[in-house]
Each structure stands twice: as structure tokens, then as C-alpha cells.
Amino acid sequence: MNTLxxxxxxxxVDTINVSDEQIQATEKNLPFKFDSEYLNYLRTCGQLExxxxxxxxxxxxxxxxxxxxxxxQELSAISTYPDNSIPVLDxxxxxxxxxxxxxxxxxxxxxxGIVKILNTSLEKYLMVTLQNI
Length: 133
Fold this sequence. Notes:
The protein is an alpha+beta fold. It is built from 5 helices and 6 strands; from the N terminus they run H-H-H-E-E-H-E-E-E-E-H.
């Protein structure tokens, strides 16, 4: 996540610190563990906001609309929600960017199912999204 760290510093991006306890508490409510790439994202950003974008993360109240644990609980109740996937960003119109901790892919998903693969790396997806604003 070095490229993301550099972007955050050089563009004064808002981030929130997150503790290991917050990460572990969230993982207890998931049927999978965060992989190293997502853990690096959380430790780098906690929860990331830039311009009009609000990425899901931790370090925010549990009832916040950008809390990844809350978003996962709400979205994963939908039958088409893919296994091992974490919400990354609300794309609007019922579409979401999800990160799959097993395949390492970021996909676009809607209530109808997976629409397409957006990127093969979480950091690459974040950077492309941030740089295209």
C-alpha cells in the first residue's frame, strides 16, 4: 500500500486511525478473516474519504453508514452477495465495489449479482478510483 500512502500524504486525504482491537472485533462478526491486503488498507486508512467518495472502513462508529462491518451485515443478507467479499465503495444506483479476500479481485456487484471485475488488486482499484476524480 505504499503507492496509496504516498497519495494520501501528497493529497491531504482524510483517513481515520483504527486499532487492532477494532479490526479483531469486526472479524469476529464475519465468516472469514481479512487478508493481508485488506488489513494493510485498514492500517493505512482506517476509513478513507476523498472529495465526494466515502470508502467503507473502520475507526468510525459501528452504526455509521461507512462502517464496513455494518455494510457487510446489511449487504450480505442479500442472496446474490458473493462469499468472502468485503464492501469497499457504494458506486450508486444499487451497485457496490466489493473486495474478495480469496480471489483478491475487486468486483462490481448489484442485487442481481456480480456485474464485472473492476481490478485484480485492492490497492490498484483504490488508486485508479482516487486518481480519476
